[in-house]
Q: What sequence folds into this?
């Protein structure tokens, strides 16, 4: 929980005003609309949001592996290399050698579905060896031994056997461990985990998250954890970004975000989870549904669902992130000096129309 | 793996028996038995009907006995290499088939090579360059290939060949080589006559394969494991060849079972148009003249060959796909 | 919560569902997956009974067997139909199934896969009505009523599912489940595919409908916090068996089975100040390799020899509440494992 963004702490990744669009059936979907995210060395950054908020697209942009219909329209994704050189990933050709050196070698990624993210017809060894041979061809010992070492490190029992297995011969939890071994085997500086445990059972999820945390601390990795689960964020992240419809609506150290959430969306999101320790008879809800990203609401994208809407300003002007307390930012006119109070428009509007 | 192979082989047997029953039914389909038909034909030609021959034939094929006994006798004869007698050719069926089957196999096999060596790369290109001009052109050409009937294509190509070379492309050999003994010249003449029919026979199959390869590869390219490989830093061409192509091959192999019958029926029509000495024209003639031993035997042999092809493709699948091997 | 209601609408007794494992080329049966192994529980009228457990614990198979989508291997499933007749779903003649199933509504997990994309909302919701021969105008009137009930605008009737968000689709699914006025609704992970903010809406809707229409729910989920929120009574399942069953409040305040506590400890609470210390190691075993002894023994930190040798039975344990708290653990009385 030591994450001040003071200039003396060196960042590893700096995303600035990132815009990503997708073309889908002649429509343009604005998936990411001006996102700034900074990841420091050894820090665990959590990106949280519901489906369609752009969290996964942001993570794909880090590696420049957007699908063919996706395009980084503007913005920067800067990475600080080991020798201090700074590379803007958005300027690299996705197929270039420089880009491919960063992928896996500097920034490694693990995905949501451990079954789908391995090829079913290649052995674990084959798939892990591929990255090692590309980035860290070992001189002193054999690739096989190195893989076994990593499989053991992530807690796979009997790694000598697991190495020759096909992914479908391992359980879901073991597959995700193997996926983590694959990501770590090339000594990356940053680990990006996109909903790494969503497909797993609760007890296995806990094991895998613990493993990620342990590995992160042991190897001094920066972690970018993408999830919809606030419970996971609370225990895994040092610094949290809350995203809604392609924008960061709030960011701050994890304790601040949970103790004094400032953006109405964050507040509602936290209130709407059923909590084991504080059972309520009735859950708080957020009105309406997440709108289609191809038809973003004007002004503040959250205004049609907001319970604390101020008035015209929310419908017309897009709020920007402003510091509400030390290191804690929210994009909401409630906390902005620019707020103009308009009388008599405090009611909220519920839009529940299908597109 | 073992039990998969054994089970697959065991499925082969009942299918085989079923096919033989159907072929036998074809033989039995016309009213009266073939010996009576033979006698009538001989009489009609004014030949002397040899009662001893008639009786010998009746005994040999068990005519007059119950159908199931006749079937068993027929099967027994086949296992000994006796497929019966063709009335139209007045020759043992086995000799007619042995004369022509190698040519049929040659043409079908050439067509098969053409289908896979053209269809796979084109389907691949079409998929990795989806929605490019190249993709549209290839897909469109594929549709035309799929929609054009074999006989029409054969006629068009014959005409084009004639216009271009001044020679008629009929038969397997040019006139000067037809009766000559084997030489390099004859071999090249054969190759020259081979590729056009093979192309015609393979067109529909090629077009179908392009579509299958393209669709499967497009499916696979969207899979998460491709993204994983990309995120590892693997180069685009390498990852496509290693992962999605490897997985897209499965349906292509299992497709062999569908390609074979298409090739065989394509071969029948094409051979008739071009006048090739293959099984095709014989089958047509046998059906027209109710030469049922010949027709039934040809159906039987072609079916068995198709069945074997399917079996081979299934076994190949087990070899290349660990999920089948491990019974997932 | 109600101890005086003793009218059970569903009474499952010693239910077993075994799936044969076939081996070799002759597909000889070499063993059985004991997906549901001697499960007993009941659903009281107007209440929500929760089945919670990880994947493969048998909760969904139990539901399918109750609906007679699987044939039970053994046991009884007594169901009280809308006209107060009690039938054994495990044994009743197949011809009567249609008539009985109208009293059971089902809500599925995936609101994207469970609605036919080629049918309009009207057709989807009216489908069960059509099945039971309701006339056209009556169908439309009923669908209007149902859509209003689940919080959707009846003008959505002519639209297709793709026009709706996940939460709206799940509302459509609920409307369909309620079309024939069932007395029991079986909800299989109805909110696990939904976003957090929408999940809360659907849970509230389900509670409201239960109270308004006097429905009884069998609610299946893997998420303890969801279960805790909506259920009156909960059965925790592990590898085909119920390991603990109690009223919700009791279960969450005084869990007695080590598996229940592990499940609770594994769930990260959305509060960074609360400690999170999941300790359970190992993975769920294969139900085909289930031997004698407690199902949880291979992962249980407290397991002793007896746990590997003898299967503990699900018994009432002495607690200070009136309702029965059942646990299948040899050491339930001795362990001090309160959450």
A:
């Amino acid at each position: 929980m030591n994450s001040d963004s003071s200039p003396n702490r060196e960042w590893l990744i700096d995303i600035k005003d990132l815009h990503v669009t997708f073309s889908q059936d002649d429509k343009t979907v604005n998936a990411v609309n001006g996102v700034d995210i900074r990841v420091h060395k050894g820090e665990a950054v959590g990106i949280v949001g519901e489906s369609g908020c752009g969290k996964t697209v942001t993570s794909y942009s880090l590696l420049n592996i957007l699908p063919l219909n996706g395009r980084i329209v503007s913005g920067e994704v800067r990475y600080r290399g080991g020798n201090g050189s700074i590379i803007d990933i958005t300027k690299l050709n996705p197929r270039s050698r420089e880009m491919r050196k960063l992928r896996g070698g500097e920034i490694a990624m693990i995905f949501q579905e451990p079954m789908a993210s391995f090829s079913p017809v290649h052995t674990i060894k084959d798939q892990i060896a591929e990255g090692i041979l590309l980035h860290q061809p070992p001189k002193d010992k054999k690739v096989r031994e190195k893989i076994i070492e990593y499989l053991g490190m992530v807690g796979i029992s009997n790694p000598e056997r697991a190495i020759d297995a096909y992914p479908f011969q391992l359980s879901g939890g073991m597959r995700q461990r193997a996926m983590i071994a694959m990501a770590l085997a090339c000594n990356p500086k940053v680990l990006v985990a996109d909903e790494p445990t969503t497909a797993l059972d609760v007890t296995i999820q806990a094991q895998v998250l613990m493993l990620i945390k342990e590995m992160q601390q042991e190897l001094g990795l920066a972690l970018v954890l993408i999830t919809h689960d606030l419970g996971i964020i609370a225990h895994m992240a040092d610094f949290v970004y809350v995203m809604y419809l392609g924008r960061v609506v709030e960011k701050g150290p994890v304790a601040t975000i949970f103790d004094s959430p400032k953006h109405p969306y964050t507040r509602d999101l936290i209130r709407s989870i059923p909590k084991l320790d504080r059972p309520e008879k009735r859950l708080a809800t957020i009105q309406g549904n997440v709108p289609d990203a191809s038809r973003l609401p004007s002004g503040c994208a959250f205004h049609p669902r907001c319970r604390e809407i101020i008035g015209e300003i929310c419908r017309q002007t897009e709020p920007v992130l402003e510091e509400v307390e030390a290191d804690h930012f929210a994009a909401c006119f409630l906390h902005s000096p620019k707020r103009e109070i308009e009388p008599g428009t405090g009611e909220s509007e519920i839009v529940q129309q299908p597109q | 793996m073992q039990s998969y192979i054994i089970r697959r082989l065991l499925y082969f047997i009942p299918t085989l028996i079923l096919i033989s029953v159907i072929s036998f039914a074809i033989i039995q389909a016309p009213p009266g038995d073939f010996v009576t038909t033979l006698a009538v034909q001989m009489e009609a030609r004014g030949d002397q009907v040899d009662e001893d021959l008639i009786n010998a034939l009746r005994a040999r094929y068990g005519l007059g006995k119950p159908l199931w006994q006749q079937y068993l006798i027929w099967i027994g004869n086949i296992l000994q290499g006796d497929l019966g007698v063709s009335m139209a050719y007045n020759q043992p069926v086995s000799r007619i088939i042995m004369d022509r089957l190698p040519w049929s196999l040659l043409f079908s096999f050439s067509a098969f090579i053409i289908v896979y060596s053209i269809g796979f790369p084109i389907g691949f290109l079409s998929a990795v360059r989806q929605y490019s001009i190249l993709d549209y052109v290839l897909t469109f050409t594929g549709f035309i290939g799929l929609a054009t009937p074999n006989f029409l294509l054969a006629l068009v190509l014959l005409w084009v060949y004639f216009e271009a070379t001044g020679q008629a492309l009929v038969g397997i050999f040019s006139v000067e080589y037809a009766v000559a003994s084997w030489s390099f010249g004859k071999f090249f003449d054969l190759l020259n006559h081979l590729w056009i029919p093979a192309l015609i026979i393979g067109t529909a199959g090629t077009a179908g394969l392009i579509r299958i390869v393209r669709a499967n590869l497009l499916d696979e390219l969207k899979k998460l494991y491709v993204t994983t490989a990309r995120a590892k830093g693997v180069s685009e061409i390498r990852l496509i060849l290693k992962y999605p192509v490897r997985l897209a091959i499965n349906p292509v192999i299992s497709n062999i079972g569908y390609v074979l019958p298409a090739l065989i029926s394509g071969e029948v029509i094409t051979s008739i148009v071009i006048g090739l000495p293959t099984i095709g024209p014989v089958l047509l003639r046998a059906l027209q003249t109710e030469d049922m031993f010949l027709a039934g035997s040809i159906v039987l042999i072609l079916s068995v060959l198709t069945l074997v092809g399917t079996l081979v493709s299934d076994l190949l699948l087990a070899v290349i796909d660990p999920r089948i091997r491990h019974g997932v | 919560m109600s101890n005086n209601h003793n009218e059970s609408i569903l009474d499952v007794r010693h239910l077993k569902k075994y799936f044969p494992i076939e081996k070799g080329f002759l597909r000889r049966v070499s063993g059985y997956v004991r997906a549901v192994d001697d499960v007993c529980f009941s659903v009281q009228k107007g209440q929500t009974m929760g089945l919670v457990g990880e994947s493969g614990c048998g909760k969904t198979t139990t539901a399918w067997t109750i609906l007679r989508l699987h044939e039970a291997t053994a046991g009884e499933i007594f169901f009280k139909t809308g006209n107060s007749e009690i039938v054994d779903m495990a044994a009743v003649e197949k011809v009567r199934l249609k008539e009985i199933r109208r009293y059971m509504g089902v809500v599925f997990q995936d609101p994207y896969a469970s609605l036919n994309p080629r049918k309009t909302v009207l057709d989807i919701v009216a489908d069960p009505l059509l099945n039971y021969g309701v006339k056209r105008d009556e169908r439309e009137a009923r669908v209007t009523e149902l859509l209003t009930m689940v919080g959707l605008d009846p003008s959505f009737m002519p639209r297709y599912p793709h026009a709706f968000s996940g939460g709206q689709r799940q509302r459509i699914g609920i409307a369909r489940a309620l079309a024939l006025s069932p007395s029991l609704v079986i909800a299989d992970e109805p909110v696990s595919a939904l976003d957090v903010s929408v999940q809360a809406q659907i849970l509230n809707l389900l509670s409201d409908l239960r109270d308004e229409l006097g429905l009884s729910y069998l609610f299946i989920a893997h998420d303890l916090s969801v279960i805790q929120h909506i259920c009156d009574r909960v059965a925790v399942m592990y590898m085909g068996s119920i390991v603990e069953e109690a009223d919700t409040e009791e279960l969450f305040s005084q869990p007695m089975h080590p598996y229940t506590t592990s499940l609770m400890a594994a769930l990260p609470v959305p509060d960074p100040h609360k400690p999170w210390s999941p300790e359970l190691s190992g993975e769920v075993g294969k139900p085909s390799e289930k031997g004698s002894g407690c199902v949880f023994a291979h992962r249980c930190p407290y397991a002793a020899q007896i746990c590997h040798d003898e299967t503990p039975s699900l018994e009432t344990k002495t607690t200070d509440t009136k309702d029965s708290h059942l646990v299948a653990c040899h050491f339930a009385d001795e362990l001090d494992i309160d959450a």
